[in-house]
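ARCHIVE CARD
Drawer: 12
Card no.: 0347
Subject: one protein chain, sequence and derived structure
Cross-reference: see card 0346
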Amino acid sequence: MHDFLITHLGVSVAYAQTKVSPVATFVGKINRLIINPLIVLMFAAALAYFIFGVMQFIADGAEKKTEAKNSMLWGLVGMAIMFGVFGIIKLIESTLGVSNVNPNL
């Protein structure tokens, strides 16, 4: 939004400097560098497992349909869990007041 205001409207917006506690900065770094990449990796693995199940369902005969259905089901369950974990982390961040912390490395 700030860039939009400057480039399109020629408006310069001044932001008040807020003091960020070291704990909030640490939590922000842990979240950005460790937790979020792990969530993305697990979501990608669940998506790959789901796609594997779909391909197995299409390619294989009737005897492997049940196994393919189970792969698709567990892939969907894994993706739902990752969405839930992401939501819980956002809830914790907003509760602790660290959701808008942009930690510098």
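Annotation on reverse: Residues 43 and 82 are 6 Å apart (CA to CA). Residues 18-96 form one domain.
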